[in-house]
Design brief:
By secondary structure, the protein is mainly beta. The chain has four helices and twelve strands, in the order H-H-E-E-E-E-E-E-H-H-E-E-E-E-E-E. The chain is globular. The N terminus is likely disordered.
Length: 224
C-alpha cells in the first residue's frame, strides 16, 4: 500500500521520533526548524522506484507544517504533520494522511488529544534531527512516534561519526544515525541528516539480516 512507501520514506520501514522524555533536550539546542522543499528517489527491493517530495513550511509565529508525498504509477499518498516549536520544545497538534491505490482510498487523522505527548511521524523526523544534533544522547536512545493509525511505535538510535557528503548540490558534514527496532535488531537503518536543516534527509539505507533492502537519496532541495 502507498502508506508503506511513505513509511519507508520516513525511515525505510522504521519511521521515528524523539520521545517526550527526550523532548526537554530540544530546549538545550539552539537550533530551530528551517523551511525547505526537497525531493527524493526511493528504491525498494521488489517495488518500482518512487518519487518522494518533502516540505517543511512555517505557517505561524511558532507553527510549522511538515508534508511528505509519494507517487508511483498506480498509487499515491500524502501525510501532513503540524507542530509548534518554541522554548518548550516541539509539540505535535494535528496530523492528516490519505492514500490511493487502484481507486481504493484511505484517510486518517489524529488531533492533539489522540497524539498526546507523542509526535506524529512527520513531525517526528524534525524532532529527531533536533535532538540528535543536540548530542543529548549518544547510545541506545529510546524514541517513540505515532503511526498513521495512532499506534505508538518504539525504536532505538545511536550516533555514528559525522561524515562529509556531497549530494544534490550540497556539501556538508552529515549528521549520521543508526536506528533499530528493540525486538528486531537485525532490522536497522542508517541515515544521514543535514546539520543545519533539521529533518532534511540526505540519504537513508535500510538493512535486514545484513542485506540492503532499500535506499533513499536526495535529488534536489530549496531552502526558505
Amino acid at each position: 500500500m502507498i502508506h508503506r512507501l511513505i513509511t519507508l520514506a520516513c525511515v525505510l520501514l522504521l519511521c521515528m521520533s524523539a520521545s517526550h522524555s527526550m523532548a526537554t533536550n530540544t530546549t538545550q539546542n539552539t537550533q530551530a526548524p528551517q523551511g525547505f522543499d526537497a525531493n527524493y528517489r526511493l528504491s525498494v527491493s521488489g517495488w518500482p522506484d518512487a518519487d518522494i517530495s518533502h516540505q517543511l513550511t512555517q505557517v505561524g509565529t511558532d507553527s510549522w507544517r511538515a508534508t511528505m508525498k509519494a507517487r508511483i504509477a498506480i498509487a499515491r499518498g500524502e501525510e501532513i504533520g503540524r507542530f509548534r516549536f518554541n522554548s518548550s520544545g516541539l509539540r505535535s497538534y494535528d496530523y492528516d494522511s490519505n492514500y490511493r491505490l487502484l481507486g481504493i482510498k484511505r484517510d486518517y487523522a489524529l488531533d492533539s488529544s489522540e497524539l498526546g505527548q507523542t509526535p506524529d511521524r512527520q513531525s517526528a523526523i524534525i524532532e529527531l534531527a533536533l535532538n540528535a544534533a543536540s548530542n543529548a544522547c549518544q547510545q541506545d536512545c529510546p524514541v517513540h512516534y505515532r503511526d498513521h493509525r495512532g499506534r505508538d511505535k518504539a525504536l532505538l538510535y545511536h550516533r555514528l561519526p559525522d561524515a562529509p557528503m556531497q549530494v544534490a548540490g550540497l556539501t556538508t558534514q552529515a549528521l549520521r544515525l543508526e536506528l533499530t527496532e528493540p525486538d528486531e535488531p537485525e532490522k536497522r537503518m542508517v541515515m544521514a541528516l543535514h546539520p543545519e536543516l533539521p529533518g532534511l534527509l540526505l540519504e537513508m539505507e535500510y538493512f535486514n539480516d545484513g542485506k540492503r533492502k532499500s535506499r533513499l537519496s536526495l535529488t534536489s532541495v530549496n531552502r526558505y
